Structure of FAD-dependent oxidoreductase:
Amino acid sequence: MGDDAVQHGSKVSRRSLLAAAGAVTGGAALAGMPRAARAAGRSFDAEADVIVVGGGGAAFAAAVGAAQGGTRVLLLEKAPAIGGTTARSGGAYWIPNNHVMRREHGVRDPKDDAVKLMARLAYPSVYDPQSPDLGIGEFSHGLISKYFDLAPAVIERIERMGVLRSQIAELRPGQTATDGIEWTHPEYHAELAENKAPYGRTLHPTGAEGGGGGSLMTGLATYARRAGVRVLTGQHVVQLATNGKGEVVGVQVQTDRGDRLYRAKRAVVFGTGGFTQDRSKVMNYLKGPIFGGCAVPTNTGDFIDMATQLGARLGNMRNGFFVQHVLEQALANSSVVDDLWIPPGDAMIMVNRFGDRVASEKTPYNEHTQSHFVWDTTRSEYPNLVQFMVYDDTVANDPYQAYGMPFPRPGTRAPYVVSGATIGELAANVQTRLDRLRGRVAVNGAIGPDVRLDDGFADNLQRTIDRFNGFARAGRDDDFGRGSTPIQVSWGGPRRRGNSKNPSMYPLSPSGPYHCILIGGGTLDTNGGPVVDASGRVQHVNGRPIPGLYGAGNCVASLAGQAYWSAGGTLGPAITNGFTAGENAIGEPVKEV
């Protein structure tokens, strides 16, 4: 859809547009605001009541929320096509106390316990269940408490509007409470005392299993367009336009046909994703090193650059929704399509460069990935920067064990798999592969790591395997508790015949061949950025909202803190807060230019 799809205002020359972009914001409404695009007169290429920036789930939810009562909404997407990272996802959204679990399946989700669960996982270092704000502060507690209220209400509303229909992801199709519920997957933290509803919060669009992100985007985008939302692609928003009072009144955009200045009479809402694909931001903000992420290539944190020019307060910058990747895939393309959720295989371990296990291999991805970030204060290094996924030939040749990413299907080969007839030969071949990867530069600037296996790697790996095999025979992992939580059992893979004790573990074979895959840390996307309140308003460093500026999704500071609450923990808040921000944006007063 081209530029003629929106209502045009008065055209300006390229010279006058760039002059407006360089002007200094006047007025004293928000003292100390530095340079920003200043709208002068009627110098706009198009006009709408609300402008939404982004093309994924958060942005389209905002567009749906704003497109009510005849509101003119313009959506601008940087990429050539809509969808963003949402289209790559499974399409699940985590909604506490949702109407499906309550009405169709009779599952209760008490608010006090759910808020405690969210707070404990989001801010574990300060969590205090006895404190009125649970130790996390009034602002953060308010966001989480409000999310519990808003999320089910928003999902029910968009279902009534005909945007999409939801079903519980953990249920087999067609099940109801009356015919005996068979839950397929528990929540990632089902074992915690605060989790009184370990099944039922994760929803996905009806009929959307196995790639539901596309179905989710289809529902949101189809409704938005029917509601009159104008969608333009290839629109790189680079600057915010403000008036003399410091209110946001539009955006400056770069297109392949030149620069544009678009007027937003009421507000601008950002839903543009995180900064996974901006190497400088990744290195300066995140808590540990990553090599890539699921985020689409356009997720470079543009909103951070623009909002901070207006004095926005930043939050949660060190966190992301973390996931592991095959190192060689991330170095080939930092926008990784395949993620390593919970590694498959029972006769499989993951070790660091010394040949030591560092965590339960079946821990959910957000938690397991952070084991890559451990700093060794003695050696002054990240010993787990690259982890080595070692498995035997029984796993490689068993279709029930090699059932998912990153194992190639039995009888096929993958270029990132390193093999060896013995543990010693495997170690030598792994080092050769590391040498080949050293210094390789990825698309986003990530560099192949300078990692060398310790001289005693092979011997120590054999000792580690022997110790693990003892745990597997006993059915209990005394080091890391592998298979001790509901999600580790559920996602641990199928139970091998003769293994009645712990289906997530089985002894590795005493003889080769053995196989290894190099694993690096990554993200689904980052989730830090400008701080927003429960209405979606971006907060200035002075504690007041920046007039006319809203945000939702991974481009803003996540209310989940360091947590990934469970499957759908990214899209649940993105849809809820995106819709809420869009709806609140239309209540903004018209801004003068």
Q: What stands out?
A: Residues 1-42 have pLDDT under 50 and may be disordered. The longest strand covers residues 258-270. DSSP finds 15 helices and 20 strands in the chain. Residues 322-524 form a domain with the Flavocytochrome C3; Chain A, domain 1 fold (CATH 3.90.700.10).
